[in-house]
Specification:
The protein is α+β, with helices and mostly antiparallel strands and about 450 residues long. It folds into two domains: about 290 residues, Orthogonal Bundle (2-methylcitrate dehydratase PrpD), CATH 1.10.4100; about 120 residues, 60s Ribosomal Protein L30, Chain: A, CATH 3.30.1330.
Length: about 450
């Protein structure tokens, strides 16, 4: 049983069909996920993933970010997707409650190198992966009662993008989607919120699963009918090519769970309206939604615990005006941050529960030692399509994440290549720069 509308879309999608604004958003999403991957390359989880992939999958034709080694496509996808989500700065989609870019992009890139395709073919496959993956996430949450990680549905998007690139027939394409769904991660999301670890959102294993599913299907391996053959998928597939879900992506300004970010925006507003000294703060009250309130409030011992925390990023932003790689990697025991964490109280607000997951909302009240009270408006997590980062803010984020690791010259070269990727005769013109280890 094949969803003919879906397979026809995957096989026929073209960049020529995109309006200018959607085309621009697609390349901005590409720039963002590449920057997040570069920033996540210099971490313990990435090093472990790289050593594992090299020992288990071996050498091949696909590059790793900022490393000279080349691995098989599945191995490179596993390592690069680890980097992409490692700092929790990667794009997301509200209705999927997950991160499509970090699982789809590394799979499509690894296959693009393996098959030595053009920039246009790569970018088209990336678009297909996003559009199918986001819809898979929406469907999965409709059809399954438990909240599953990106790895459980994102693998379907990865398989769709890779399948388009390697030219699978309609029947093999449907097998690839079914294999990806069946072999995708189980990933009970809220357990990882309660116990943060390097498992994070199941993204690296789901990415490896997605690309492997397409390669297996190409060889004749069979799978189940995918969830896109179910009745609930009809409306979502009908809108393909007429409505682009990539327009609903959010781009994250802070290196922490999305659920903590509206509180940061509240603190940002208060800091902008008054002269606020961390030493003068008596109490901070965060009104938020249930999922946000489930985030840890304890002192973090690992970067994962810092990212899946409500109080740590709020305190870090109040003290330093930033929640980036430095804060979540190097300042876990910063006494100024920990002192502010002790002053935070969290209250669940039913009003905000009603809006989730369409919107992530919070409100912040700060009480100072002298008795002054400052309160933010109800704040939405910034970067959503209806509260977006400006193009200039997106560009600033790119250079904020990349320049410390590859230097300004290489970062500028990379930025220009990304925004002209559709004109590249071969995708390796891009990956040759991505594999650079430093600005020489």
């Amino acid at each position: 049983m094949i969803n003919e509308t879906l397979t026809a879309y995957i096989k026929s999608e073209s960049l020529d069909q995109l309006d200018n604004s959607t085309f621009k958003l697609l390349k901005e999403a590409l720039a963002d996920i590449i920057a997040c991957s570069i920033a996540g390359s210099n971490t313990k989880a990435t090093q472990i993933a790289k050593e594992f992939a090299m020992s288990q999958w071996g050498t091949g034709r696909s590059s790793l970010f900022l490393f000279p080694e080349k691995l098989t496509a599945a191995g490179a996808a596993f390592v690069n997707s680890t980097m992409a989500n490692e700092l929790d700065l990667d794009d997301g989609h509200r209705l999927t409650k997950g991160h499509p870019g970090a699982i789809i992009f590394p799979a499509v890139l690894a296959a693009a190198e393996d098959y030595n395709v053009s920039g246009e073919n790569f970018l088209t496959a990336l678009l297909v992966g996003y559009e199918v993956g986001i819809r898979a996430g929406i469907l999965a949450h409709k059809l399954r009662p438990e909240y599953h990680c990106t790895g459980s549905w994102g693998s379907i998007g990865a398989a769709a993008g890779v399948s388009r690139m390697i030219g699978l027939s309609s029947d093999k394409l449907e097998h690839a989607l079914g294999i990806a769904e069946y072999f995708g991660t189980y990933s009970p999301r809220m357990r990882c919120i309660e116990f943060p670890s390097m498992l994070k959102d199941g993204i690296n294993w789901g990415c490896m699963t997605g690309i492997s599913a397409s390669y297996l299907a190409k060889g004749g391996y069979t799978g189940i009918p995918s969830l896109f053959t179910m009745e609930e998928a009809v409306e979502l597939t009908k809108e393909l090519c007429t409505y682009y879900r990539i327009r609903e992506l959010y781009i994250k300004p802070h290196a922490c769970c999305r659920w903590a970010q509206p509180a940061i925006e509240g603190i940002k507003v208060i800091k902008g309206e008054c002269s606020l000294s961390a030493a003068n703060i008596k109490k901070i009250i965060i009104h938020t939604f249930t999922e946000s309130a489930t985030l840890s409030k304890k002192y973090p011992k690992t970067t994962e615990e810092a990212q899946y925390n409500l109080c740590f990023p709020a305190a870090a932003y109040l003290v330093y005006g930033e929640v980036g790689p430095k804060e979540v990697l190097d300042q876990l025991d910063d006494p100024l941050i920990l002192n502010i964490m002790d002053k935070i109280e969290v209250i669940i607000d039913s009003e905000f529960n009603e809006e989730f997951p369409k919107k992530a909302l919070s409100r912040v009240k700060i009480i100072t030692i002298d008795g002054s009270v400052y309160q933010s408006p109800v704040m939405q997590a910034k970067g959503d399509y209806d509260f977006p980062l400006t193009p200039e803010e997106k560009k600033e984020k790119f250079f904020w994440l990349t320049t410390p690791l590859i230097g300004e010259r290489v970062a500028s070269q990379l930025f220009d290549l990304i925004h002209n990727v559709e004109s590249l005769k071969r995708i390796r013109e891009l990956t040759e720069v991505l594999a650079s280890t430093k600005d020489k």
